[in-house]
Amino acid sequence: MKDNVSTAIHAKQSVPQQDSLFQTYRWVLSYVQKYYGMFWLLVCCGIGVTCIQVSIPKGVQYFIDIIVPSADVIRFRWLIILLVAGMFLMFGLMAWQNLLQRSIQEKAARDLQYDIFSHMRKLGYSYFQQRPVGESLSFMNTEVSILQDFYRFLLPHTIQNIVVSIVSITVMCAISIPLTLIMVPCLLLYYLVGPSIERKATILAKQNTEQRIAYNQKVYESVSALTEMRAHGAEDWDWKRFKGHLQPFLDGRVRMLWMAFWRGTIRRLSYYVGGVAVILYGIHLVKEQALSVGEMSAYLLYYFQVMQTVTLVITVITEQKVLMHQASRIHRFMQTEPEVDEVATPISLKEISGEIRFDHVTYRYNNGPEVLSDFNLMIKAGQRVAIVGPSGHGKSTLLQLLVRFYDPQQGEILLDSVPIQKLSFAQLRESIGYVSQETYLFGDTIRNNILFGHPDATEEDMIQAAKAAYAHDFISAQPDGYDTLLGERGVNLSGGQKQRISIARMFIKKPSILLLDEATSALDTASEQEVQQALERLLLGRTTIAVAHRLSTIKDYDVIVVLEHGQIREMGSHEELMRRQGVYYQLNSGEEG
Ligand code: ADP
To answer: What's the pTM value of the predicted model, to 2 decimals?
Structure first.
């Protein structure tokens, strides 16, 4: 019976259901859980600062009601001493608060970035084939910085402002309950109009997030495709597309800020209207001697403080909702299951000889048509196999299944008689060297680009590898030899030179199996010959599967497989296939012609 691991893995759908904002909120909060102690300390500092601020109106009341009528200098001095001490304490607490805020914000954001990054690695190749890279970059930068605001400002301020509002309203009630009741209609006025504006602001902010992500993707795409754009003189076309993304983003921002202005205006209006009512009714109470002048002054100061805090609580809660919409994108991304999973307890092979067997392998991308259909192939250790055939018939897919970028829906691939799904990713990928059409070189020294194949290798090993790959001479001719820095994607090297660096990587990695995916097809004839020479050496004694476009490069391979519609059409050595005068023969005639 077939191993059903692959089917089970495939059954996991990549994109989960739309999660509720509450779940997102809990997930976002989980990143501060680790810093619990610091977080509550931060809230306490905030409450401490506000308590001192709250006590200032009381000091004013004391000054007007007690000190001024009695002209008591000693009390006045004490009041000044207390005020100064309070101020020092407040600044001390504020400094501490700031330090805690930064620490929590940075630590939580760092943890989040670690998690996003490691999740990206777990999702691997298949995910990035389907999603734009700009989106992932946006997750790492913009979305995380938005969440930093949540940890630094929104969350502690919500808690702190709620506590402060309760304390202040209690003090206000203690001064005068009728005056405090005046606040109710003012808050109602805000509630009447405020939430609808807040809701609009939420929607606009959500739209703006989408626009920002699309814009980021576009910038990434334009920068990545700079060479193609120049080559095709498509700068104007790209410029229009760029503007097409930037303009809606900027317009969206203007609309969002306009809404924010109205939100602020309504808030100010509601507490100024209330302020006038408090003053009028307060004067009346003072005249009636139900309230002292000091109490009235203190009350007014509290009033403005409380109105500001309470309306701020409403705003902060709405802003959190907006933020959760933005965070839900990252949350959904974090819930995406990898299409290919590593087995929990892998089988460890001491040595890999390199025997490969495709056993009834069937594969299709995302429920599309079958790319490989019941494919069977046995490759002995050390054998060289070339896969040829028309494009789009599954050749590269075959190699990608072998390195487990994807898993087949049916059948299995065995390495040294062990299903590759039972091996660890590390062992599988260490034993396989993959050379594709385009080599990615890091913006680092040539040395590090070669050592990437095996970071612990010695300098001597590295030079040997470069020599074996016919790369030593051109590297030595560079201004700083092995220490020459390569630009992004190694733009200062030719295609052939880049390929030879990637072959040097393989010499140092020493994999038992080599996969060549049209490794030389992007090169001109002169470079191809150089690379071909290097490859000849590399292939010695290694199981090799080469997808080849130019048939001249694979004539001496042990087995040539002609693949059509994901199935083997013909198979044999060059001579056998030429004698047969079938598809391979025709392909060869086509190439020669
Ligand atoms: P070949 O190497 O023979 O040119 P491929 O293995 O690259 O062919 O592709 C086989 C088929 O699978 C093609 O029809 C191609 O469009 C499709 N395909 C390749 N990669 C993907 C992908 N990531 N998502 C969906 N379809 C894909």
So the answer is: 0.69
